[in-house]
Amino acid sequence: MTGGNKSLWPERIAYLAGLAVMGVALLFLLGAGGVVVASVVGVLCVGMVAGGRSGVRAVRAGRWERPGTWLSLGVASVSTGVVGFAVSYLIGIFSGGLDVEETCVHGHGVRYDDAFREAHAEEFNRWFPLHSKCNEDFDLVPAWVNPAIVFFALLGAIGVVCLAAAVVTALRTRRDR
Questions:
Q1: What digits encode the pLDDT tens for the residues 42-72?
Q2: Reduced to 3 states, what is the DSSP secondary structure of residue 139?
Q3: What's the whole-model pTM score?
Q4: Are the C-beta atoms of 164 and 78 separated by less than 8 Å?
Q5: What CA–CA distance (Å, rounded) separates 132 from 94?
Q6: How much is the CA Rg of the chain, to the nearest whole Å?
């Protein structure tokens, strides 16, 4: 650490300690299943932040030929894609609530058409695109959810391509030695 950064050291320790306390509290509240969920979320968040920061630095420096650049960009893209996909999909899945009729009528003040829902029942049970319609005119799934699902799936696929580019670049660098 350089002399100019020494004043930030106590703040960094306090920040990390605060994160640790919040993590322990979250694990205590969620129980045994929370350990797995918190671990996965933690790894994905570290991948998004660390991969994104180092990838952006490498791109700014013009280090496209290094495997680490592609690895960082791949990790950041895959992590962001997985988190974004999961959040968007869960918002879409749970947008109707437990009782769609109650959500339509009381939550949104919209007419619930039972005959329409019955006639289109298989549409509401599909994995994609997500729909939970009250009637022919009103969908409980927000309009941004399906495009976001596609975007984050593509971002994850781009991340996989970046990871493949990291492997190819590493093999090419090793061969050229």
A1: 788 888 888 888 888 888 898 888 898 999 9
A2: strand
A3: 0.73
A4: no
A5: 9
A6: 23
